[in-house]
Amino acid sequence: MTEPLYRPHILAHARNPQYRGVVLDATHRADEANPACGDRCRITSKVENDAIIEARFDGDGCALSTAATSILLEEMTGKPVADVTKMTDETFLALLGVDVTSGRLDCALFGLRTLRRALCLN
User: How confident is the model at residue 5 (pLDDT cuts 50, 70, 90)?
Assistant: First the structure.
């Protein structure tokens, strides 16, 4: 049985993203846009000793894009940059804990792709 996309934890992060904002003394940053849907995302992060010590995002996106980025930064803050390198799209989708249709993959993975770009991993 598949789980609905907008489960309580997705809605909670979409309504009240935990990592929204800007890291003022960021060491890494990236701005991305998805022209197909209009989503925009900026991720700023501070990396010390190869670990993400602080990360924030800002921009406009759908509920799934916002929630997924919030969940991603919650998971990655305090972890080594290498953990982002090891995280595959499939691993991240499993972390979200919902079934994402092919039409919503770009929304779900938008934050991960932006974080990879910010950390110069892609």
Answer: low
Which pair of structure tokens corresponds to residue 107? 């929304």
Distance of CA 70 to the CA centre of its chain: 6
Residue in the block written with tokens 């900026």: 42
Single-letter residue type at 38: G
Give the residue from 64, 63, 19 showing the smallest Cα distance to 42. Answer: 19
Do the beta carbons of residue 81 and residue 119 sit within 8 Å?
A: yes
Sign of CA dihedral 70, 71, 77, 83: negative
Whole-structure pTM value: 0.90
Burial 84-100 (b: 16+ CB within 10 A, else e): beebeeeebbeebebeb
Give, in order, the Cα–Cα distances in Å from 39 to each of 24, 34, 44, 58, 101: 22, 5, 17, 11, 18
Answer whether 63's CB lies under 8 Å from 11's CB.
Answer: yes
